[in-house]
Each structure stands twice: as C-alpha cells, then as structure tokens.
C-alpha cells in the first residue's frame, strides 16, 4: 500500500509556523510522510491567520483548489486550523463542503486524535479551549540551525484594531523548565539560534506561580551551551522595561536587535489604538536602549489608515521613522476586524489614501536605510552561517537580520558564528570577508 502524504500550508506569524511543526509531527505519528505540494497530499492542512482581511480571503481560493483535488480523490482529508478556524469554527464546515475538520488554536495539542477522527469519516469542528497550565510536549522537528520556541500564548492587550486576543485567548505561559528543556533538546539536534515566541513576551510569567519573568528566562537560556544566538518576538513597547534592556545588554547570546512595534507616530492615534504609550515614552525607551547598547538595531510594525488618521497624524509617523532609523519596518493598511473596538470607528480612510501612505512610508524608510548603507562598509559584523553559496563563499544572517555573504579560506559549518568585515553594503544584504 502507498504511504500516505501530508502538506501543511502556513499563513500568519511565527507562532503559526511553530504550531504547523507540531501538527506535522502529529501527522507523522499517524504514518503520514511530508510531500511538496497540496496537489499530491492525502492530508492537507491550511493553518490560517485572521489578522488582516486578505489572508482570510486567500483561504477561499486555496479551498477552491483543494476541491478540485478532492474531485479526483474523494479520500483526501482537508483541515482548517489556526486563527480563522478558531474564529469561525462550525461556520467553515457549513460553508465549505471540501473541509473535513476545523481545529482551533488550542486544538493543536489534540491533532493526532483529530486526524484519526477525520480518517474515520466524521466531519467536525474542535474549537475548544484547553484550560489549566499551558504545556507543550516533546515533538520531533526537521533539522535546522534556527528554530522558534513558543513561550506563551494569547494576548490580553486588546489593541483596538486587533483580532488576536479574540482568537488566541488569555495569556498563558509555559513553565521555564519545560522551555529550557526544549531549547536543550533543539541544541542537541543542531539548532544554534532560537527565537522565543509570544504575542507579548514581556508579559511572560505573569500567570505563573514561580517568580520568573522574561528577563530571567533570557538569562537562563543564555547559559545553555551550544546555543549561539537568542532572539525574541514580540515585545510590546508599553512593557519593554529598563530591566529588559539591561538584560539584553548583559546576555552574551541575546541579539541586540529588538522588534518594538510602534504602529503610529501620532499620540492621538496611539490612544485610539489603545496602545497605552505615547510617542515620547516609546522613543525614550529606544534612546535608553541605544545609550546602553550603541550597536543595537530595531524594527517596527506600522498600520496606515487607521480610522480617523489625518495627514498630520501620518506625518508624525513619518517623523518617527526618520528619528528611529529602523533596520526593518513592516507596514500594513488598516483592515477592520469583526468584533474589535476599532470596527465601531468605521473604516474612514479610503483605500487609495491608505495605499499612498503605505508607499510613502516604505519609500522614506528605504531612503533612510540606503543613506546609512555606506556607514556599514569597513565595520565588522557577526554572522550565523546558514550555508555555502559557492566554493569559499558562505552565507548567513547577522544579529540585525541582514543577509551576509562572505569569503572564507577556512571551511564553515551551518550554525557556526563568523566575524565578517563588510566590504559592500546593499539594501538586500552585505558582502564581506572572514576576519
Ligand atoms: N503582538 C504583536 C503584533 C501581532 S500582529 C504586537 O503587539 O506588536 C502583527 C502586526 O499586524 C501588528 O503589529 C500590526 O501592525 C498588524 N495588524 C494587526 N491588526 C491589524 C489590522 N486590523 N489591520 C492592519 N494591520 C494589523
Ligand atoms: Fe494584537 Fe496588540 Fe496583542 Fe499585539 S499586543 S497581538 S497588536 S492586541
Ligand atoms: Fe495571524 Fe493568529 Fe498569528 S491572527 S498573526 S496567525 S496569532
């Protein structure tokens, strides 16, 4: 008999990617092997995101294709998981006859049983929440030098535009020893860079009976041998503390590269977004981090066209981007999400204006970044090697997330750290030589 295959299509954030890895392990525990495309899979899982409207509409088109595969082979199992699944549950089963199961964000831990039930011919939705301690058991992963590790789930910040608190529920942290054991296990399999994941990692530990906070967790992980680098995502600016800044500075392996999403440079809009910080409070934290770590890099998310955003508000965002000199920015047009507070404010900024602001924002950031490029030439940077490009040419990523290709006479293995002198700096990445 032919071995059955699975394919998982992942949308959204790194936490969804982590969940997809857990689901892949569950499928493999049921005898499925991975395949390269949905068109050749016996089990197709769409792990969805609902943070903006577009990813949601994308699913309908993917399901359209899955229906065609299923017409040829009615035994194919199609599952919808992730945030759209959590949000819409049963409704998806009714709307799309192609779908065999809908499994919400907490159902990932039950995926083995869910696959069994779907194989037995039952169509169902499982959007039940798991109560009690948040724990993730051991699961096997594909070999890699970098890996994400979810440290907590949920979000209780309720930024007015955001669906995440509704689809990911209350903040729950994994126990520190469980996380550290996972990191040790990953190190044993060859992982050298880990990224701690949570919607707001600064809230880590608030729900635990032990006293560990996120700074403590970073310090403990910093001591794990064989791990060369530690990253984390995402830090909410309101909770990004001096303690955190000092911890990053003290820890040898924690990257001095911080994703600190500002969202808007206008205090009026920040208030309407319920972000709970002002532009000044945010920039004071960024300045303090730069004072303590002059080599630190930052990145940020922005939303353009939030309800009521005027040209003046948007100009404040441009000014903030000019001041902060971010390494990278991620910006999105505002998309009203059902049930959020901002939905009640209407979608007042026309699409053309949103698009035009988005373009201006990226253009400004591009100009600022380009102007800084010559400063990097001649400086040294630390690169985590991810592979070889050519004979004597290696590739990797520096602490600030830039791609670096470099020449080296000595052979380098993926996962090793290299000190590289930059000889050329372009928007898409740096070139250099091993020091
Ligand atoms: N927890 C993270 C963000 C998670 S969502 C944080 O607080 O920063 C990732 C990004 O998507 C957000 O930072 C925001 O910029 C964007 N986003 C969230 N909801 C959105 C919406 N309704 N419309 C447009 N962008 C949105
Ligand atoms: Fe959404 Fe705000 Fe929570 Fe981030 S902190 S996930 S933007 S509600
Ligand atoms: Fe999207 Fe859910 Fe992540 S809405 S951004 S997949 S938490």
Describe this protein's structure.
- The protein is of the alpha/beta class and 435 residues long.
- The chain folds into 3 domains: 122 residues, Methylthiotransferase, N-terminal domain (Rossmann fold, 3-Layer(aba) Sandwich), CATH 3.40.50; 230 residues, pyruvate-formate lyase- activating enzyme (Alpha-Beta Horseshoe); 58 residues, Beta Barrel (OB fold (Dihydrolipoamide Acetyltransferase, E2P)), CATH 2.40.50.
- 35% of the residues lie in helices and 23% in strands.
- A 6-stranded parallel sheet has the order 2-1-3-4-5-6, sandwiched between helices. The chain has a 5-stranded mixed beta barrel with strand order 15-16-17-19-18. A 3-stranded parallel sheet has the order 7-10-11, sandwiched between helices.
- Strand 15 and strand 16 form a beta hairpin.
- Helix 8 packs parallel to helix 9.
- The longest helix is centred in the C-terminal third of the chain and has 26 residues.
- The protein starts with a strand and ends with a strand.
- The model has no long low-confidence stretch (mean pLDDT 95).
- Bound molecules: S-adenosyl-L-homocysteine, iron/sulfur cluster (SF4) and FE3-S4 cluster.
- S-adenosyl-L-homocysteine binds next to strand 13.
Write the layout of secondary structure elements.
Elements: E1 5-10, H1 14-29, E2 33-34, E3 43-48, H2 53-72, E4 77-81, H3 82-88, H4 90-95, E5 101-103, H5 111-119, E6 124-126, E7 146-150, E8 152-153, H6 164-168, E9 172-173, H7 176-188, E10 193-197, H8 214-222, E11 229-233, H9 242-250, E12 257-259, H10 267-272, H11 279-292, E13 297-304, H12 311-324, E14 328-333, H13 351-376, E15 380-390, E16 393-398, E17 403-407, E18 417-426, E19 429-434
Parallel strand pairs: 1-2, 1-3, 3-4, 4-5, 5-6, 7-10, 10-11, 12-13, 13-14, 17-19
Antiparallel strand pairs: 8-9, 15-16, 15-18, 16-17, 18-19
Helix pairs in contact: 8-9, 9-11, 12-13
């Amino acid at each position: 008999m032919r071995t059955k295959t699975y394919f998982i299509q992942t949308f959204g954030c790194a936490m969804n990617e982590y969940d997809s890895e857990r689901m892949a392990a569950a499928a493999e525990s049921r005898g499925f092997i991975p395949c390269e495309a949905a068109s050749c899979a016996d089990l197709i899982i769409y792990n969805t995101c609902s943070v903006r409207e577009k990813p949601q509409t994308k699913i309908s088109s993917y399901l359209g294709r899955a229906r065609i595969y299923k017409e040829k082979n009615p035994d194919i199992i199609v599952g919808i998981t992730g945030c759209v699944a959590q949000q819409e549950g049963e409704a998806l089963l009714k709307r799309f006859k192609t779908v065999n199961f809908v499994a919400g964000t907490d159902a990932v831990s039950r995926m083995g049983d869910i696959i069994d039930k779907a194989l037995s011919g039952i169509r169902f939705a499982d959007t039940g929440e798991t109560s009690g301690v948040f724990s993730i058991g051991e699961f096997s992963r594909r070999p890699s030098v970098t890996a994400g590790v979810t440290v907590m789930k949920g979000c209780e910040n309720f930024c007015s535009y955001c669906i995440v608190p509704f689809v990911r529920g209350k903040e729950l942290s994994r126990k520190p020893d469980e996380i550290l054991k996972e990191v040790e296990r990953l190190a044993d399999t060859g992982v050298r860079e880990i990224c701690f994941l949570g919607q707001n990692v600064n809230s880590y530990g608030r729900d635990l009976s032990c006293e560990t906070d996120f700074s403590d967790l970073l310090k403990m992980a910093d001591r794990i041998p064989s791990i060369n680098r530690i990253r984390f995502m995402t830090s909410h600016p309101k909770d990004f503390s001096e303690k955190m800044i000092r911890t990053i500075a003290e820890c040898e392996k924690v990257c001095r590269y911080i994703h600190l999403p500002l969202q808007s440079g206008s205090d009026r809009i920040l208030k309407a977004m319920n972000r709970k910080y002002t532009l000044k409070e945010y920039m004071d934290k960024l300045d303090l981090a730069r004072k303590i770590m002059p080599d630190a890099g930052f990145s940020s998310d922005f939303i353009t066209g939030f309800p009521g955003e005027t040209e003046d508000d948007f100009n404040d965002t441009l000014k903030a981007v000019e001041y902060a000199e971010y390494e990278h920015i991620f910006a999105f047009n505002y998309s009203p999400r059902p049930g959020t507070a901002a939905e009640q404010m209407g979608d007042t900024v026309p699409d053309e204006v949103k698009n035009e602001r988005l373009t201006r924002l990226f253009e400004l950031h591009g100009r600022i970044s380009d102007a800084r490029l010559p400063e990097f030439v001649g400086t040294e940077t630390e690169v985590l090697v991810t592979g070889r490009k050519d004979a004597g040419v290696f590739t990797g990523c520096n602490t600030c997330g830039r791609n670096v290709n470099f020449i080296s006479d000595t052979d380098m293995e993926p996962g090793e750290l290299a000190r590289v002198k930059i000889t050329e700096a372009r928007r898409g990445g740096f070139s250099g030589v091993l020091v």
